Sequence to fold (273 residues):
Amino acid sequence: MTDRYAVLGHPIGHSKSPLIHRLFAQATAQDIDYTAIEAPLDGFKQTVLGFRAEGGRGVNVTLPFKLQAFEIATDPSDRARLAGAANCLKFEGERIRADNFDGVGLVNDLQRNLDCPLAGKRVLLLGAGGATRGVLLPIAAEQAAGLWIANRTADKAHALRQDFAAHAALHSGGFEALAGHSFDVVINATSTGLTQEALPLPAGVFAPGALAYEMVYGKGLTPFLQQARAAGVQRVADGVGMLVEQAAEAFVWWRGVRPDTRAVIDRLTVPLV
Ligand code: ATR
Fold:
């Protein structure tokens, strides 16, 4: 029998997840059906439970429901617990398991696809919202030489540092605190990739040979990536690989089979121009 999965969000029309999972299923000969469901803003839990009652086996969860996905879980992973958010649920009888694959997806994209091991690197995360919180733990596990969080509102960066203090030695501050520091990997986890606003980054924030990574995907050269290019950065990437890698983690978790990601990333890549 065909097993059913879905991605839930609001809005959801833009989601690439059905295409990605369909390609994974074809490549691994898995008999699954994967759809996109727009849950009402005040009806996330009912939509999840309704999908499960109709035989659904699991769901991916995107904005704005990642916090609620964590809340309805009976068995959240440590990653999901620290993020306070989940992007993937698996139904097992009455249990709802939850995990958050955004961070491992980002780390796999950086290290495997972009050949950028984080160990020994100076890493800067821009932003202190849900996107940063969701990826912090897996990044912190990679033994970077230093891990900074810089945010427009410095207090939010400090709060994040305190929340993760037991798990990672972080530096935190506003953008002005970056003056005089440079980084090998700079990741934009603010929402400016979507709003096309520039960030007030001090000159010199990009070390020679740095990689600039925009977490948003498919938007071409965002203001952040343009800033990086203008600073002489040669290696720029957007979040298409992170998207596909987090989907691959979900697929393995649900199906027990690891799909190849390269061809899917190539298919979804929008040139950075
Ligand atoms: P998400 O879940 O995408 O992280 P969020 O929790 O609303 O969304 O967080 C948005 C992040 O983008 C925050 O770090 C926000 O900075 P503030 O905490 O100071 O609001 C950041 N952000 C949004 N617009 C920005 C801008 N124009 N310049 C700098 N940072 C911005």
Observations:
- The mean pLDDT is 96.
- The radius of gyration is 18 Å.
